[in-house]
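note to self — DONT lose this again. spent like an hour looking for the file last time. sequence + predicted structure for the chain T wanted, 145 res
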Amino acid sequence: MLIADKRDYRKGYKKHYELYKRLKSNNSDINSRRLLLVYSVECGLKYMLLDKWREENPRKIFESEDESKKRILKSHNLEKILKELGQMGNFKFPQLKTLHQDYAGSDAYHQLYRYCIKLPLEEQAKEKQLEETLNNIACWIEEGS
Protein backbone atom coordinates (compact mmCIF):
# COMPACT_ATOMS: atom_id res chain seq x y z
CA MET A 1 0.00 0.00 0.00
CA LEU A 2 1.25 3.45 -0.90
CA ILE A 3 1.18 6.15 1.76
CA ALA A 4 -0.88 9.22 1.01
CA ASP A 5 -0.83 12.03 3.55
CA LYS A 6 -3.65 14.34 4.55
CA ARG A 7 -2.73 16.88 1.87
CA ASP A 8 -2.71 14.14 -0.81
CA TYR A 9 -6.19 12.96 0.18
CA ARG A 10 -7.53 16.51 0.09
CA LYS A 11 -5.97 17.19 -3.31
CA GLY A 12 -7.28 13.86 -4.65
CA TYR A 13 -10.77 14.71 -3.45
CA LYS A 14 -10.76 18.17 -5.02
CA LYS A 15 -9.21 17.20 -8.37
CA HIS A 16 -11.36 14.11 -8.89
CA TYR A 17 -14.55 15.85 -7.82
CA GLU A 18 -13.95 18.83 -10.13
CA LEU A 19 -13.35 16.50 -13.08
CA TYR A 20 -16.46 14.48 -12.14
CA LYS A 21 -18.54 17.68 -12.27
CA ARG A 22 -17.12 18.61 -15.69
CA LEU A 23 -17.84 15.13 -17.06
CA LYS A 24 -21.37 15.26 -15.67
CA SER A 25 -22.07 18.67 -17.20
CA ASN A 26 -20.90 17.32 -20.57
CA ASN A 27 -22.95 14.16 -20.03
CA SER A 28 -19.75 12.19 -20.61
CA ASP A 29 -19.09 8.52 -19.91
CA ILE A 30 -21.22 7.50 -16.93
CA ASN A 31 -18.94 4.73 -15.61
CA SER A 32 -15.84 6.91 -15.70
CA ARG A 33 -17.49 9.89 -14.06
CA ARG A 34 -19.06 7.73 -11.35
CA LEU A 35 -15.71 6.05 -10.71
CA LEU A 36 -14.18 9.49 -10.20
CA LEU A 37 -17.03 10.39 -7.86
CA VAL A 38 -16.55 7.24 -5.75
CA TYR A 39 -12.82 7.80 -5.48
CA SER A 40 -13.14 11.51 -4.79
CA VAL A 41 -15.56 10.83 -1.94
CA GLU A 42 -13.25 8.13 -0.57
CA CYS A 43 -10.31 10.56 -0.66
CA GLY A 44 -12.35 13.29 1.00
CA LEU A 45 -13.54 10.97 3.76
CA LYS A 46 -10.02 9.73 4.42
CA TYR A 47 -8.85 13.35 4.60
CA MET A 48 -11.53 13.94 7.22
CA LEU A 49 -10.47 10.81 9.12
CA LEU A 50 -6.89 12.02 9.37
CA ASP A 51 -8.16 15.42 10.45
CA LYS A 52 -10.33 13.82 13.14
CA TRP A 53 -7.43 11.66 14.34
CA ARG A 54 -5.08 14.67 14.25
CA GLU A 55 -2.64 12.93 11.94
CA GLU A 56 -0.95 14.51 8.94
CA ASN A 57 0.70 11.28 7.79
CA PRO A 58 -0.99 7.87 8.18
CA ARG A 59 2.37 6.11 8.47
CA LYS A 60 2.08 6.57 12.25
CA ILE A 61 -1.31 4.81 12.17
CA PHE A 62 0.03 1.90 10.11
CA GLU A 63 2.98 1.50 12.47
CA SER A 64 0.79 1.67 15.59
CA GLU A 65 -1.05 -1.08 17.44
CA ASP A 66 -4.48 0.38 16.57
CA GLU A 67 -5.84 -2.28 14.20
CA SER A 68 -9.23 -0.57 13.98
CA LYS A 69 -7.80 2.63 12.50
CA LYS A 70 -5.59 0.64 10.11
CA ARG A 71 -8.57 -1.35 8.80
CA ILE A 72 -10.70 1.75 8.30
CA LEU A 73 -7.94 3.68 6.54
CA LYS A 74 -7.20 0.76 4.17
CA SER A 75 -10.90 0.18 3.47
CA HIS A 76 -12.98 1.18 0.46
CA ASN A 77 -16.13 0.73 2.56
CA LEU A 78 -17.69 4.18 2.55
CA GLU A 79 -20.25 3.24 5.22
CA LYS A 80 -17.55 2.16 7.68
CA ILE A 81 -15.59 5.34 7.08
CA LEU A 82 -18.71 7.45 7.58
CA LYS A 83 -19.49 5.54 10.78
CA GLU A 84 -16.04 6.41 12.14
CA LEU A 85 -16.77 10.05 11.27
CA GLY A 86 -20.04 9.96 13.24
CA GLN A 87 -22.24 9.99 10.14
CA MET A 88 -23.77 6.50 10.38
CA GLY A 89 -27.21 6.50 8.81
CA ASN A 90 -27.02 10.05 7.47
CA PHE A 91 -26.34 8.80 3.96
CA LYS A 92 -28.15 5.82 2.40
CA PHE A 93 -26.32 3.42 0.11
CA PRO A 94 -28.27 1.09 -2.15
CA GLN A 95 -27.23 -2.48 -2.87
CA LEU A 96 -26.86 -2.71 -6.63
CA LYS A 97 -27.50 -6.04 -8.35
CA THR A 98 -25.35 -6.68 -11.41
CA LEU A 99 -26.21 -8.64 -14.53
CA HIS A 100 -24.00 -11.38 -13.06
CA GLN A 101 -26.33 -11.61 -10.03
CA ASP A 102 -23.69 -10.15 -7.68
CA TYR A 103 -24.45 -7.36 -5.23
CA ALA A 104 -22.36 -4.22 -4.89
CA GLY A 105 -22.51 -2.23 -1.67
CA SER A 106 -20.49 0.73 -0.46
CA ASP A 107 -17.37 -1.43 -0.26
CA ALA A 108 -17.53 -2.45 -3.93
CA TYR A 109 -18.77 0.58 -5.88
CA HIS A 110 -15.22 1.32 -7.02
CA GLN A 111 -15.05 -2.16 -8.61
CA LEU A 112 -18.46 -1.80 -10.22
CA TYR A 113 -17.38 1.31 -12.13
CA ARG A 114 -13.70 0.44 -12.62
CA TYR A 115 -14.67 -2.75 -14.47
CA CYS A 116 -17.74 -1.19 -16.17
CA ILE A 117 -19.99 -3.95 -14.84
CA LYS A 118 -23.47 -3.66 -16.29
CA LEU A 119 -26.60 -3.42 -14.20
CA PRO A 120 -30.11 -4.50 -15.20
CA LEU A 121 -32.44 -1.69 -16.26
CA GLU A 122 -34.46 -2.04 -13.05
CA GLU A 123 -31.35 -1.05 -11.05
CA GLN A 124 -30.88 2.29 -12.80
CA ALA A 125 -33.06 4.23 -10.34
CA LYS A 126 -30.93 2.90 -7.46
CA GLU A 127 -27.80 3.84 -9.37
CA LYS A 128 -29.05 7.41 -9.77
CA GLN A 129 -29.81 7.42 -6.04
CA LEU A 130 -26.23 6.31 -5.37
CA GLU A 131 -24.84 9.15 -7.48
CA GLU A 132 -27.02 11.61 -5.58
CA THR A 133 -25.89 10.18 -2.23
CA LEU A 134 -22.24 10.45 -3.23
CA ASN A 135 -22.80 14.06 -4.33
CA ASN A 136 -24.44 14.81 -0.98
CA ILE A 137 -21.40 13.37 0.80
CA ALA A 138 -19.12 15.48 -1.40
CA CYS A 139 -21.08 18.58 -0.39
CA TRP A 140 -20.80 17.58 3.28
CA ILE A 141 -17.03 17.13 2.82
CA GLU A 142 -16.80 20.61 1.24
CA GLU A 143 -18.56 22.12 4.24
CA GLY A 144 -16.15 20.46 6.67
CA SER A 145 -12.86 20.96 4.86
